[in-house]
Amino acid sequence: MLHITRTGQGISTNPFWNTNANANRSKVWAYGVRNSYRFNLRPAATSRTSAMSAGILEEVNVATRGANLGWPCYEGSARQGGYEPKSVCQTLYGQGTAAVKMPLYSWTHAAGSSAATGGTFYTGSSYPTQYQGAYFFGDYARAG
To answer: CA-to-CA distance for 21 and 100, rounded, in angstroms?
Structure first.
């Protein structure tokens, strides 16, 4: 996930800033994001992303400044078998699960789901107060 200026330069408050505004590293705000179908920003410097699956899981993530969301080494909160033998994943696994910001919510395709379709933060007043600021999302194939 990048955080850049209108001219494509990195921002000095980005977590991987290296004093070069043109360096790719200086543009990164969070990483390990998997096929985000959609994302939404929230003023508290977080975002919610809906990730489409590489295999069996869909997920909703909360990306925070400097977070590693785990892809390609994790799918949901499980190790992603296709990438597990790779050295980058073995290094990440060696750091423990605390090195990865695990999904807020994940689910399998077993019940006929197919694509997390992220939505929006609710800011209205029609629903009860417990829904104020809630993130609404669904699954394309489940119509819900």
So the answer is: 26
Going from N- to C-terminal start, the domains of the chain cover: 1-30, 37-139
Q: What letter represents residue 17's amino acid?
A: W
Q: Which two tokens stand for residue 50?
A: 């809906």
Give the number of residues written for the chain. Answer: 144
**By three-state DSSP, how is residue 21 classified?**
coil
Higher pLDDT: 110 or 94? It is 94
Q: Give the span between the Cα atoms of 4 and 65, in whole angstroms.
A: 13
pLDDT tens figures, 60-88: 888 889 999 999 999 888 999 999 999 99
Q: At a CB cut-off of 8 Å and minimum separation 6, what does 133 contact?
A: 121, 122, 123
Give the SS3 label for residue 143: coil
- Here the tokens at position 113 are 């789901």
Which residues, other chains included, contact 99 with Cβ-Cβ below 8 Å and sequence gap of 6+?
Answer: 68, 92
